[in-house]
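Q: Can I see a sequence and its folded structure?
A: Here is a first one.
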Amino acid sequence: MIGCPAHKGAGKTLAVDCRMAKNSGVGVYLRNLLPLCMARLPEVRFLLLGPRAVEECFVIPAGTQFEPVAANIPIYSVKEQLVLPWKIAQADALWTPHYNIPVFTGKPLLATVHDVAHLALTTLYSGLKRAYARTLFAAVARKADELIFVSDFSRREFLRLVGQPRGRANVILNGVSQTWFEEIHDESPVPFPYCVAIGNIKEHKNIRRLCQAWRLVAATRPEHLVLIGKKSGFSTGEVSVQDLEAACPGRIHITGLLDEAPLRRHMRHAQALVFPSLYEGFGLPTIEALAMGTPVAASNIPPVREACGESAFYFSPQDPSDMARTVTALLELDGPARKALVDQGRTRARLCSWNESADKTAEALARVLAL
């Protein structure tokens, strides 16, 4: 691990909004990155804002100065705007791992922008949610001293839909934990060959079209489709769990949300990861699959291209037939061709390192703290 050099200004306090630490997405980002940044800034005292016992969400490095601060406040709420400034009053700066910054604070600020989906996907969110997002994104552009974008695509989308930020814009890619590269020697979690798709059922995740495509895949292939994601509230208004399973009866299975160990087990034994999203900021499951040695068939969209390069097979996310053809072509690769693709994918995944992300993020935090 590369440590940060000693800085002047020891004794600074950084507040970190950890309210989403248990979530997927932003939660994965926080759980992997925050402990590494804490290790790189041993002179900084960290205030971890979140639910009770928020510190249990992280593997806190030895010797780290930290204090949990109870902040069980709903995200995207008026309450967070009223209460968070009071909660961070003793801090010298704030890091928010999402765009929902407290607008009524003058603290130096680092904000991470994963995507601008609330602005880009105009048919997915209500007018009120889009208006709230526009207000907060405008505040991020105006108030943040440093911004982190998890891909160059997200940076370009921010410029297109929000505008030029006042603060310094850093593109710092998400990483892949070393555990995804480790060999797993166990039995498959299911008794049949399968492909896996990972993500909560939301309209832009495009799971409905994937299930339509699976009817075509299943006509010529033995593989089942295993969907992994949050099961409560597992519908978008246009599709339900029952509708998804009925698209190809007996060949589509929904597991619900899984912890990392069983998630990796499902990924390792899958014949492929299918990633059909219409819109992403990065697409972390694709890189995790490549690290695991699981081939990827994914949407031909800019952020996934940016993450996977030529190490994946791509399809049009709007066309179930093209999706089915691409998945089938991937599954029909012979042994040498599949091995070459797996080796290429592992090499690609090693370009995404949480340690490298932490080095750059800690430098940005040091600038915000004026260390």
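Q: Show me another, different protein.
A: A second, unrelated one:
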Amino acid sequence: MSPKILRSSAFRLALGYVALFGVSAVFLLAFVYWLTTAYMLRQADETIEAEIVGLAERYRLGGLNGLTASIRERLDRRPQGSSIYLLTDASGAPLVGNLNRWPKVMPDENGFLEFELVTGPGEPPHRARAKPFVLRGGFQLLVGRDLQELESVRSLLLRTMAWGLALILALALLGAVVVSRSRIRRIAKIDEVIGEVMAGDLSRRIPLEGTSDDIEDLSEKLNRMLGELSNLVEGVRRVSDSIAHDLRTPLARLKTRLERLRRGRPEEEEIGEAIDEADRLLATFGAVLRIARIESGERGRGAFTSVDLTSLIDDVAELYRPLIEEKGSRLSLHNAPSVIVQGDRDMLFQAVANLVDNAIKHAPGGGRIEISLASQNGRAAIVVADDGPGIPPEEREKVRERFYRLDRSRTTPGAGLGLSLVSAVAARHGGELRLEDNEPGLRAVLTLPR
């Protein structure tokens, strides 16, 4: 047997069950043995009691001659039988029977004598059990049974139980080895996949066997974890590529302005443009850090409090109303009363503000921006809609990615992080962000559990 199997937790657990099962089997077989032998001994005692009653009645009706004739008749009928008889006179001299002398043993609490009986020369002694009975006239009658058959049954039971227990333990041990090998094989697959993932192959997954057991459940969870890990690594790669691509231009502009400032006499306009460029870069990095903190759960759900979305929507509308009116657009507000959720108010405020800011950027001058809050089916729905160009259906998933921007949006201010932050906030609150067609324009729906 492989030492790896012997060291495995599955084998040790199975071995523990084998030991427990073996102990249980021993107790069960011991109970069966005790029950069987006790029943056979009770049957022998009842037979002896019945024969004593019959012979005593025969003595009462037929006297000594009738009793001796009845004993001889029984012995002649079954000379090799298990019945034991001995009739003696008052002095203890044998008169009739298949015993040559009275046993020199004391009776037990039930009046029975147990003694050793030798049936023939060279035969080993075996147990016998009898009960004495005193007749009128001082005659003593001993009636008993040879327990050789009982002893044989006991011996057979013991051998059967020993072999049965050995077979049970052998089969249980074999089952433990088979189960352990199966577990070790499946765990080895998990270990192999994890090793390949650690070596850099994030596409590897643990094969499932459809057994629906605990290892299968663990494998499914590990596969989901590996999928999430792969997505996170891919996300980090995309973010790195996006940062390298999208921030190259503003950094180059900032460098150019700084070099001009170093070569010539700085003018206030040049200094202001350099500061604005630096502020935009800092804002971009700040947004990336905020998204990372939200996704990592730095502020756990334990810090969530009751948030009145009705008040939050009013605050967002009040903040952006002047900007909307300055652009010549109209703000339409439909706010449901007393909609309460559990969450982080700052995160939710920033998410709604990002949606409104996107709507302002893409809505045409003189257009309409709608903010609404509704409650249905145990969820709160915040809707921000505009009548701008909208987002094509095939691009709606991509715009959630960091730094992803539509071609027509690259000339507008921003870094492509707004919807990424909203998606992160929605996920952190157990909610969802949906982007739908407003015909025309975009309809952004942020749903949260109440």
